[in-house]
Amino acid sequence: MAEEFDFSHLSPEEFHVLREAGTERAWSGEYNKHYSKGNYNCRGCGNQLFESDTKFDSGSGWPSFDQAIDGSVIELEDRSYGMLRVEVQCSRCKSHLGHVFPDGPRETTGQRYCMNSLSLTLINISWTFVHASPDNLISASLFLMSPTSSWRGRSGRSSHSINVKMYFLTRPFISPRSAHFS
User: Fold this and answer.
1) Tens digits of residue pLDDT in 90-120
2) Which CATH number is associated with domain 2-122?
3) I want to staple 61 with a disulfide (CB 3.0 to 4.6 A). Which of 15, 27, 99, 179 is the partner?
């Protein structure tokens, strides 16, 4: 249930969109024209919602996706403002994300998940391959900032993108115990 989640990390604008089913102004969102690789997660609870390869430019002024990750969202009838629409909520915390319309790309699903940037957090993922030997490789660690955390950039504006770099060895490691000597 939504009551299990702490939403105190949300700004007043984020809270209005996510918890009061508000809508940000068209063309104002940070992810409208943003096409980095990664996953778009719920800003309320961190649930993975959309993969970046499903994002497209709908010309609507809001970030649009042609499909959600299976089981990540729920769709509800919305009759507010004298219209019949389909509201999209996070399946985990029941936060309002936006609406889905049947006017998306015909080549894919035909759906347009029209989301509020304020309801999303982008988790960027990049891959880096490095050469290392067991002698100079002490440990590999992956540090993530919680998707429910935010920090202030140089502009003073709250930022919610998280960049993750993953390092992989490109040479096989043979431990002395597994080596065979003839």
Assistant:
1) 999 999 999 999 999 999 999 999 999 999 9
2) 2.170.150.20
3) 27
